[in-house]
Design the sequence.
């Protein structure tokens, strides 16, 4: 068992760190305050291949592994939670399902420009009545009589990269079947939907507590015609596509949570050395020292779980439990560490320019999206008790 | 077209400076980066390659400890084609004369149309090695390049010069020393990093160099370091808060006069 990163991963980390410090950090406060999607930063990330890190080179990606991708999200999240989730949603929730379930034609048409960063991706499962309970999905796709098109009707909400994306993976039900007990069950399918398809429009832009620049929108489909060849994976197997996609996505969000926690810890270490009370730096007080020790230990433990999950994605066919543990733990660490960071900053921690309050707001969503902490516990305990 | 970019791994000034007992830098003990002027030189070479990728080959060359291979890998991850590391214990402790003799000794065994070096390294700040290499090789040199382009078989360089600049043209083969201001170097790419470990880095020892023994290493270095020390920490200085701009100007002038600066 080797806990040391090899040279190429160390080098990749130094790249992500330098990029995050120079290109992302200077805009983090503005992105948060204006709620503006950081398009210029995304363009730069496209130029340097950050939008297709784990995708093979033959499909326009960088040919790296899930660990490299997770480290990229982590380093971005240390300085800006918004930028990190843009990369995570694009890579894990749009590129990955096309890579895994797409036909060769779909990969050439959609994955190549996505992995090159020429196009941005998003994923739509959640609806007003369907979050954790996927059976609540009301969005419906019906195949036309000639079998050439699907007609999509319904809406999706809380979609990351919402209005900015070009390509969307949309989950809709296509059939209703009866199970052995005679209960009706929806069968889902996944579709690749392009922006500007007639009948596809945007609804409300969500005004969020954190990750404010990430363009979270409602997607509306009204008689939206999609070519039959845009069915992703087999008809009726969309739930499996969605669950597999979220397993991978959780590694990205776990890495985001880890980065937010580490970023808050870094800021706090700097602050407690500078801030003086009672004639001493507050870092000289044992309470501060003990809090920092706990925060650093929590971050380290989260990092091991996140990297282990990323490694499992590279080496195992099923890594859902590792991903769930990583996300559950890292998200709760992010919330705890950022809360302590604000507390250790005292009044300044509550002021925007000190940034830890933003990190605390950004951290909260990691306990909710791509499966709440409660869902992660269900996945983990389900594996224990099966 | 073959371009050789000479790069140097230098101490990262953020990590603190450490010396060996003889006053030379203890490079192995310090964090290291690619020298900024050299990185600009590399970027200039890569931009020439971008304009004609099939016909331009960029080789990076460095002399240093075995760990200097890191800086070659970084250059390859940015887009260079291959690297050459000159490393040998007998080359240690070299001053600019011995360094330039050694590098020229390597270049004599390489093909090149254009050699690019940084103006100077942030550890020594001499700005001598680039021009010295050109002298050893008997080719023209244009130093302090802040713009660089290729025109046929020549390079056209905008050279920084005091309060003006010179536009100079030199026929290749020639050597150009690059300023950090020349450009904004690109980042590596994640895929470039993964690939750079599969690309060729040749390691050359003393036997691969076309140079006299008397011109290499500490023995071949005319420079003798009498004493070396870390930067002396600056004092706190004096903070004044004048009420007006005029008062501030008068205060500054009085201080300059007091120190006999004016």
Sequence:
């Amino acid at each position: 068992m080797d806990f040391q990163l090899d040279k190429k991963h160390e080098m990749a980390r130094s790249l992500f760190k330098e990029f995050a410090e120079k290109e992302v950090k200077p805009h983090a406060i503005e992105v948060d305050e204006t709620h503006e999607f950081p398009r210029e930063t995304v363009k730069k990330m496209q130029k340097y291949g950050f939008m297709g890190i784990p995708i093979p080179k033959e499909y326009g990606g960088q040919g790296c592994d899930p660990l490299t991708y997770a480290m990229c999200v982590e380093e971005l999240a240390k300085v800006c939670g918004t930028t990190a989730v843009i990369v995570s949603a694009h890579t894990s929730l749009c590129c990955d399902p096309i890579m895994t379930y797409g036909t060769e034609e779909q990969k050439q048409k959609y994955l190549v420009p996505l992995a090159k960063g020429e196009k941005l991706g998003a994923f739509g499962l959640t609806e007003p009545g369907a979050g954790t309970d996927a059976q609540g999905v009301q969005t419906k796709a019906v195949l036309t009589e000639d079998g050439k098109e699907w007609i999509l009707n319904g809406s999706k909400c809380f979609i990351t990269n919402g209005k900015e994306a070009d390509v969307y993976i949309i989950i809709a039900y296509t059939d209703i079947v009866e199970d052995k007990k005679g209960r009706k069950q929806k069968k889902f399918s996944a579709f690749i939907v392009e922006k500007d398809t007639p009948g596809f429009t945007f609804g409300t832009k969500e005004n969020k507590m954190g990750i404010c620049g990430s363009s979270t929108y409602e997607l509306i489909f009204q008689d939206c015609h999609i070519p039959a060849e845009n069915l992703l994976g087999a008809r009726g197997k969309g739930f499996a596509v969605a669950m597999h996609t979220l397993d991978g996505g959780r590694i990205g969000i776990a890495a985001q949570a880890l980065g937010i926690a580490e970023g808050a810890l870094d800021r706090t270490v700097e602050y407690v050395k500078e801030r003086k009370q009672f004639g001493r730096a507050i870092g000289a007080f044992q309470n501060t020292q003990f809090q920092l020790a706990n925060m650093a230990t929590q971050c380290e433990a989260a990092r091991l779980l996140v990297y282990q999950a990323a490694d499992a994605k590279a080496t195992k066919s099923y890594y859902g439990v590792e991903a769930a543990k990583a996300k559950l733990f890292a998200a709760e660490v992010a919330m705890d560490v950022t809360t302590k960071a604000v507390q250790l900053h005292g009044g300044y921690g509550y002021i925007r320019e000190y940034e830890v309050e933003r990190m605390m707001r950004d951290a909260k969503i990691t306990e909710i999206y791509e499966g709440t902490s409660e869902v992660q516990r269900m996945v983990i305990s389900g594996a224990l008790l099966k | 077209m073959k371009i050789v970019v000479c790069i140097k791994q230098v101490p990262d000034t953020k990590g603190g400076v450490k010396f060996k007992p003889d006053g030379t830098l203890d490079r192995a003990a310090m964090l290291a980066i690619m020298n900024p002027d050299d990185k600009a030189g590399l970027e200039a070479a890569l931009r020439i390659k971008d304009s004609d990728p099939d016909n331009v080959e960029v080789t990076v060359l460095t002399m240093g400890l075995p760990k200097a291979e890191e800086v070659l890998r970084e250059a390859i991850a940015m887009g260079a084609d291959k690297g050459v590391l000159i490393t040998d214990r007998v080359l240690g402790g070299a001053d600019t004369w011995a360094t330039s003799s050694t590098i020229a000794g390597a270049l004599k065994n390489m093909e090149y149309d254009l050699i690019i070096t940084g103006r100077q390294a942030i550890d020594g700040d001499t700005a001598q090695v680039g021009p010295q290499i050109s002298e050893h090789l008997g080719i023209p040199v244009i130093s302090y390049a802040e713009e660089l382009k290729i025109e046929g078989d020549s390079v056209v360089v905008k050279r920084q010069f005091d309060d003006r600049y010179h536009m100079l043209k030199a026929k290749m083969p020639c050597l150009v020393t690059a300023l950090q201001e020349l450009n904004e170097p690109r980042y590596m790419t994640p895929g470039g990093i993964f690939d750079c470990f599969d690309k060729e880095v040749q390691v050359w020892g003393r036997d691969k160099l076309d140079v006299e023994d008397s011109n290499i290493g500490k023995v071949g270095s005319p420079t003798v370091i009498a004493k070396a020390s870390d930067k002396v920490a600056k004092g706190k200085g004096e903070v004044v808060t004048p009420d007006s701009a005029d008062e501030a100007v008068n205060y500054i002038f009085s201080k300059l006069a007091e120190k006999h600066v004016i």
Chain B has a mean pLDDT of 91. The domain at 2-215 of chain B is CATH 3.40.50.620 (Rossmann fold). The radius of gyration of chain B is 21 Å.
